[in-house]
Design goal:
Chains A, B: Pfam families: Aminotran_4. Two copies of one chain form a homodimer. Chain A is of the alpha+beta class. Helix content of chain A is about 25%, strand content about 30%.
Chain lengths: ~350, ~350
């Protein structure tokens, strides 16, 4: 049953940034959604308010013990003026799996989706329509109790903020260069790797910075135990087309269960292209590169959608893929997926959800 | 050279809590310290202001990507009315090691120590004097740039807040029961385990909650690779006295380099008690328990100081240590260390730093 979301509109609308200079996550819309939690009341007071700073006690647990999770999804403006979301229910299912792993109480998925739709509707003028642009939606939960004992918080805020975005990588749809990290580890089995939580990203900043200085856009993480199994790229899952079959690392507890990843697997199956989820070693990837069977490589994620990988570097051994060009299947997946997302292609999978205006 | 710290005193002092009901990290003093950072200015505007909420953009990186670190130390009121800190330089050295691991710029350790002393001086009436109490000091850094791209922040806040505290565990100096975790992992080599950063604590909340429901105060973490080497307890390093020698896990990259841990090792050496830092398996601990050579076990940390371990449970096998009583050496270490810290015992190590009043 729909709940009542209180709406306070801004009296001071911001100027919108030019659509060719959006970047990623730099500009924020005019409004945001907030829902509070206390042990006594549960989740309460759902409201849309003008986008504004939030005020927290400096002892709030999110600052000290990292009890926080987030989601990322996008709203698209179709050519005929409709607004679409892509599989938003999946995001709120994963949000609650992340919540469980971080000892954060469940958020009502229906209320969250209703809030998301209402917020997009209120700020619909912010959805850009230039090719490759969209409105990035960031639901997140933070622990707000002011207490320094290490224990789950008794108070939380669930919020949604929104940002009009262009391409996540400066490269756009051009292939990215990926550095295979051998020292640092993002996550390990038994840790929080499959939760979308802040600490996983903090752990990767050092290595990402070092890779960036060497000219690589992103890190490819190996498993934390044997340091040989491919896990994921900083903000993407990874796929490799080897000898006609598409491989992606199986969800092993330390890899994020990407919604784009799931969609790609689904699309490949529906196209009768063999796709296999299994542990993949970095050695076998290099072997496939050496014997000429490594046909394509790409990353998938909400922010980057699909990003071709043109080169990898593992222990100072470069592996150039397709001479650094985008693969045919990669391009077809990108065109089809973004086409479904932005409404240019009819959605045969029932993935899109229209936002009423 | 001492910098100028701007001081704004509160006009509205809070009522102090009764010293027998302090708990841990529940009450905060009248003032706090703030130092801002931007890429352009570096660290700037050191100031002491009334304790108050802080205002952040909801896109601040600390909420999304966990770029934050902290420290913990204590101020003590001696019987003759002096105020002492315990090895505060060590905390700021570690703070900067944590900063480096989290891609946060270095904080000037001298300025941080000056700020800490000044803040303690301003709020000196908050230092409790009842046995077992102290003023807990919490320096921390949070990433404040409002940007959703995964990259190090361009803006930070370094802050110090303070809380009058009693015993960290409800048990006080009574032995605690520890649950040896077999599923979840706190940290792994190559991760952020040796940094004092939020994500390490978030990762442990689930297991700690489950252990608590089974009647255990804390988790003992095993290594993330082989799941057999003892790492640390949730908020403490661990020591075991076996057949006259004291053992503690060596610093392997995933264990926090505790300052209390370092102090205990130093004290044991100065007492000519053999102390060995090396990898320790949970199996050998249980063997020592079975053959009667496990004489004492205790945890060490700033919050808990020294906490005897009376019972462990690994894979449903309980290991009772000394029939659950506190060991002689554990008690002597506790008495000596807390005596040095609170000024009852003369400090032979040069560890205490007096705060001018």
């Amino acid at each position: 049953m729909a709940q009542t979301i209180d709406i306070t509109l801004t009296t001071n609308k911001k100027e919108k940034p030019p659509e060719n200079k959006l970047g990623f996550g730099i500009y924020y819309t005019d409004h945001m959604f907030i829902l509070d939690y206390s042990v006594e009341k549960g989740w309460y007071d759902p409201r849309i308010v003008p986008y504004q700073p939030i005020t927290l006690d400096p002892a709030a647990k999110v600052f000290h013990y990292g009890q926080t999770i987030f989601e990322g999804l996008k709203a698209y403006r179709t050519k005929d003026g409709r607004i679409q979301l892509f599989r938003p229910q999946k995001n709120f299912e994963r949000l609650n799996r992340s919540n469980a792993r971080l000892s954060i109480p469940d958020v009502d998925g229906e209320l969250a989706l209703q809030a998301l739709q209402e917020l997009v509707r209120v700020d619909q003028d912010w959805i850009p329509s230039a090719p490759g642009t969209s409105l990035y939606l960031r639901p997140f939960v933070i622990a707000t109790q002011a207490a320094l004992g290490v224990a789950p918080s008794t108070e939380y805020k669930f919020m949604i903020i929104m940002s009009p975005v262009g391409a996540y990588y400066a490269e756009g749809m051009n292939p990215v260069k990926i550095y295979v990290e051998s020292d640092h580890v993002r996550a390990v089995k038994g840790g929080v790797g499959e939760a979308k939580t802040a600490g996983n990203y903090a752990a990767g900043l050092n290595a990402q910075q070092a890779a960036s200085e060497k000219g690589y856009s992103q890190i490819l993480w190996l498993d934390g135990v044997q340091r040989k199994y491919i896990e994921e790229v900083g903000s993407m899952n990874v796929f490799f087309k080897i000898d006609g079959t598409v491989y992606t690392p199986s969800l092993n507890g330390s890899i994020l269960a990407g919604i784009t990843r799931d969609s790609i697997i689904h699309m490949l199956k529906s196209w009768d292209i063999p796709v296999v989820e299994r542990p993949i070693t970095i050695e076998e990837l290099y072997e496939a590169g050496a014997n000429g069977t490594l046909e394509e490589a790409f990353g998938t994620g909400t922010a980057a959608v699909i990003s071709p990988i043109g080169e990898m570097n593992w222990q100072d051994k470069p592996l150039v893929i397709r001479d650094g060009s985008t693969g045919e299947l990669t391009a077809k997946l990108y065109d089809t997926l973004t086409g479904i997302q932005n409404g240019d292609i009819e959605d045969p999978y029932g993935w899109t959800v229209e936002v009423k205006q």
